[in-house]
Amino acid sequence: MKKLAITGSIGMGKSTVAAMFEKRGIPVFDADAVVRRLQGPGGALVREVERLFPGTTGPEGVDRGALGRMVLGDGEKLARLEALVHPAVHHERTRFILEHQDSPALLFDIPLLFETHGEGQFDSVIVVSAPAAVQEERVLARPGMTAEKFAAIRARQLPDAEKRRRADHVVDTGVSLQETERQVDAILACMGLAAGA
Known about the structure:
Elements: E1 2-7, H1 14-23, E2 28-30, H2 31-39, H3 46-52, E3 57-58, E4 61-62, H4 64-71, H5 75-99, E5 105-109, E6 124-129, H6 132-140, H7 147-156, H8 160-166, E7 169-172, H9 177-190
Parallel strand pairs: 1-5, 1-6, 2-5, 6-7
Antiparallel strand pairs: 3-4
Helix pairs in contact: 2-5
């Protein structure tokens, strides 16, 4: 089984590209979706998040906006949050691998792959990228996003050029969806994983 990682900075189109791999028969583990579930209503992490960061949870689980405001820019609080979240995500990832042990490949969608030095756990790393102007337009169009918030998020992420340099494969999403799909097909062919594998 090949373990593939997909990563990319905010607004690069990573979720769209991951969905293209999934459509072609590659099971996808979405770390962000797992975190949302663990922090959602009745989620396994809600009680501990409230203990560590009082006032950041409610009936809907963790208030991600409130939690973000509390930890962004505070290295110590961010480290405490990551020490809680990362082991829980790792446990879910192990379960995912066991559930799909007969698949020829698995794709792991990990936004902060390089930042957490996790790339060595994978056979191949795919970086999703787009021109800076395209990235900014996409991100600032998101509800509740501000230029300041975008700058704070980007400051935590390795620069796109460095991610591209470290990648085994780069998918450019600053082109049409059809061209992006052709890039995905070319990557799968290069790995010996025909579409629909």
